[in-house]
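Ticket #4471: structure output looks truncated?

Reporter: J.K.
Steps to reproduce: submitted the chain below (252 residues) through the standard prediction queue, then opened the result file.
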Amino acid sequence: MKAAFKFLFSLYLWTIVVSVTVIVSTLILLSLPIALLDSSRRWHHWLGSLWAHSLMKLNPFWRLHIVGRGRLPNNKSYVLVANHASLADIICLFTLGHQFKWLAKKSLFQIPFLGWAMSAMSYIPLERGEYGSIKKSYNEASSWLSKGMSVLIFPEGTRSKTGTIGHFKSGAFRLAIESGRPIVPIVLAGTGNIISKGKAAFGKIGVAYMSLLPPIETKGIKPEDEKQLREKVELLMSQELEKRNRMLSRLS
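Returned output as attached by the reporter:
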């Protein structure tokens, strides 16, 4: 009975995810003429937020608690760094309502509807291991920051297999130092229970946390101090993740 329920639950949620993704992606593509008046594609990002909120509303078994939402006002731009354990992280981060550009692996842009929408929204593709792609993505992210648009990066570079925070790469922190933009660390806990890496089935029913830590100013920090900044952020996020995981353990 339990296995049958889990299968039906996964089938229901995947049907919802695919259906809502196709509908919202189509709306984004049909509204491309708006880009003539909205070069930052803010309208399209708002549709992305609508996508995430719709999925949250249509999932009656999952609750997301957001801590520190007020630390991310819309009138400023930041380098947002988040840990990454699950595809569910994408949904959570879109619910923030803050305008930003994703830095995402290039293969995602090739997925029908989802990838087309990402391109239409002017998100930033990155081909791992290719210096030319990395440099181009870095320059594009820097350009968006100079226009007052936040950029969101997963500094681990890939989804965690262990549930703990992996070693951070330096790109996001060099970007923050060079642009003078504050870093806002975002910690996601519990999302790996929804969609585990390498598995097609949705996982446990439960609660997830998204914690926004206080912004960390980068003005005045020298490029040679990037490693110190990176290690500081990694430690703060690891401590917050441990805290939220303890809370989730007590709830379960």
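Triage note (M.O.): checked the attachment and the full token line is present. The chain is about 45% helix and 15% strand.
Status: closed, working as intended.
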